[in-house]
Amino acid sequence: MKTLSASVILVSLYTAMTASSMAEEVTPPPANTPARIPAAKGPSLALAIEAAKVAIETCAADGAQTVAASVLDSAGVLKTLLAADGTSPRGVSSSTIKAQTALQFKKSTSALFEQAKTDKAFADSVAANPNINGRPGGILIKVGDEIIGAIGVGGGRTDEPCAIAGLQKIQARLAQ
How far apart, in whole angstroms, are the C-alpha atoms of residue 118 and residue 136? Predict the structure, then answer.
């Protein structure tokens, strides 16, 4: 009998402690807590979606019906990824990797593509890294001289003009 009542006491104590710790977890922050500051600069979600949509529509108008467009913020966080119907998985990943590559090297992937033509060591290092795509289609998003993100388009034959069209559509509305 003593064992049973000790077990009941332990279970009751455990339940009370668990309920108390759960109550602490859901306590809202004080009213004077400052607003969350974004981790990185970048286009708003609405502008990122608009840029990606325009990029895909531009490629479609030029005959490339199955492309994807990715928009990243300055920290490389994917803001949006849109893929036209029928886009291949490779086109989707290519769009994101091109945007990441542009951010990493702080220049367009077409500039990297040109550099690789004359710098064999660079070309070999790019070719050896699956997380780098030096094919044209990745461009930087800038406000003045500050890089705030990147757009990548993948899956078409001429991806960079599509990315540029997406950026041009939103450029004037990016935060100064």
Answer: 16
Flag whether 36 is in a domain: no
**Number of separate domains in the chain:** 1
Tens of each residue's pLDDT in the chain, 176 residues: 444 444 444 444 444 444 444 444 555 556 666 655 556 788 999 999 999 999 999 999 988 889 999 999 999 999 999 999 999 999 999 999 999 999 999 999 999 999 999 999 999 999 999 999 989 999 999 999 999 999 999 998 889 999 999 999 999 999 75
> pTM here?
0.76
The span from the CA of 38 to the CA of 17, in Å, is: 36
Dihedral-angle region of residue 71 (phi above 0 means left; psi in -120 to 50 means alpha; beta otherwise): beta
Cβ atoms 101, 112 nearer than 8 A: yes
One-letter-per-residue 3-state SS of 54-97:
HHHHHHHHCCCCCCEEEEEECCCCEEEEEECCCCCHHHHHHHHH
Look up the CATH number of the domain holding residue 150. 3.30.450.150
